[in-house]
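Extended Data, panel c. Modelled sequence:
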Amino acid sequence: MSVSPSPSDSALSKMVIHSFSDKDFQQEEKDKLFTVPINPESFTRNYKVDLDNRTGHGQPGTQPGYKSTSPEELKIDFILDGTGTVEGYPAQYDGMSVHDQLSAFLTCIGFNGDIHRPNFVIVIWGSEIRFPGTVSNVDLSHTLFLPNGTPLRVKVSVTFVRSESDNARAAANRMQSPDLTHYHRVQRGDRLDLLTFSKYNDPNYFLQVGRVNNLVTVRKIAPPQELYFPPFAQNES
């Protein structure tokens, strides 16, 4: 018996990275929120146990002893594109160069001069990733260029290390309901308050939705606008 996906299962959701300036994940820097334009094809979670493998003199082997467990790592690979030819590329990046998209990403995750360290982040995507942590490594591979050397496409490989504190786990859990970023292409007759209610079961988020989409007015939306509805903490209504 086959099971057809429900509308909520098949709805498009984008990976979102929230940026925080404190280790307790209370002070979100909303202007640094980064939506990954093209969702990763895969991600890797790494769990590492450190063992003591020393053997006694003259002994053929020994039972490894436990030393410690390293924090979980999350590795993600995704593409930033500046060709303007990728279908479904988020409207907020229209006309934005690869250089500027990359700058927005690095500003979200990178070194914060006010706290003298990289920002704390929560990575959210679908039902499997709600990951509080800090960036540990970024590799950038430029793969497509204009004749003058300007990059048109960058492959980003980023690794995050999980924050294991109770506050970090609680902050990640607060990102539930809703926990996904949805995109909606405006149809004739759409209203922002009704669309907001359909995504969040609460119309009171419509002003926040208007701000993150840079809408001049929340009273009038029209085709072919594409709106995105990011996760909001439950206390943001």
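The longest helix spans residues 98-109. This feature is highlighted in the accompanying rendering.
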